[in-house]
Amino acid sequence: MEKTLNKLRLTVTSDLVYRVLRSCSTSGTESFRFFNWVRTHHPSYEPTTIEFEELIKTLARNRKYETMWKIAEQMKKKTHNLSPSTVSFIIEEYGKQGHIDQAVEVFNKAKNFNCPQTTEIYNSLLYALCEVRYFHGAYALIRRMIRKGGIPDKKTYAILVNGWCAAGKMREAQEFLEEMSRKGFNPPVRGRDLLINGLLNAGYLESAKEMVRKMTKEGHLPDIETFNGLIEEICKSGEVEFCIDLYHDVCRLGLCPDIGTYKVLIPAVSKVGRIDEAFKLLHCSIEDGLKPFPSLYAPIIKALCKMGQFDDAFSFFSDMKVKGHPPNRPVYTMLIKMCGRGGRFVEAANYLVEMTEMNLAPVSRCFDMVTDGLKNCGKHDLAKRIEQLEVSLRGA
């Protein structure tokens, strides 16, 4: 590698070194060799904190710990301080590998690199402790953090709640949140939202559903981020009806859906053939002041075609162009394919032409499907025009 680099006559800058190191984040040894080559062959180059930290992260990611600490010491001699985000990264990498003693050691010696023990650094050690399921130590760490004047943030609570939920310790997670509330360290989001997220992350879908069902019966609402995450997981499991009912319940209670809500629900209800519900949701999104975009229209169009309601699909597609966003390439491609499957080759040909007029290049298989279909149904002149269109596009 070094011989090749010597032949390149590179103009070395901090930006170049950083970009190379960032691009080689999975190659610890090679990144280190490149960094050494630059410093040896270009004495005028002086590494900045950004390059040092990028290399340290790469070495940590690739478990080159001995070399990583050598670079950290070099950085210290150059009077560059390790940032809290880099120290946090190292602690989390040790945690992922189960090296909890090393993670604690890094946490304790952060001050040696002029790096204060910020909430971010506490969170990284908390993450490492939860990775090895040392919850007693994690809980003690939060108490220490508060004693030292630190203030837990949303991530602090989420890490510990996720860890407890993943270990099936629902009661402990609930008691922890209640204790923090009593002490005046209220989570930035409501405790039950954190618990629902924790249950989802741990794969306990039924428990999460039960909790949100209980919340709505009591007249309480999850936050929108939690609600969207919940319905996304439930839709993946195939329980679309539950999501529809839950959507109507939370809307009655005053929850304001965002575009993420409709991105989950409209495709889900369309896929199971609930076209009326899909139309209602689309209209609700427009009434909420959200501008629809192609991927909200596309599932409805596809569902109509699958049900053989092509005229309705074509009309809705035209409505999309007038009132919504112009169709993009994936939507045109989907509609052309659905027309082909339904034997509507003339309409498919028209959409092919329309697509090219919008400077959207159709995929080759669409041309093949349309021309073959037109020939089979006796539309030879139109088939020839489509073939000529494909030739002209390829020539261009």
TrEMBL record:
Keywords attached to this entry: Repeat
Domain of life: Eukaryota
Placement of PPR repeats on the sequence: 118-152, 153-187, 223-257, 258-292, 293-327, 328-362
Pfam families registered for this protein in UniProt: PPR (PF01535), PPR_1 (PF12854), PPR_2 (PF13041)
Single GO molecular function: mRNA binding
InterPro entries found in the cross-reference section: PPR_rpt (IPR002885), TPR-like_helical_dom_sf (IPR011990)
Family recorded in the similarity comment: Belongs to the PPR family. P subfamily.
PANTHER family linked to this entry: ADR149WP (PTHR47938:SF47), RESPIRATORY COMPLEX I CHAPERONE (CIA84), PUTATIVE (AFU_ORTHOLOGUE AFUA_2G06020)-RELATED (PTHR47938)
Protein's recorded name: Pentatricopeptide repeat-containing protein
Organism in which the protein naturally occurs: Liquidambar formosana (Formosan gum)
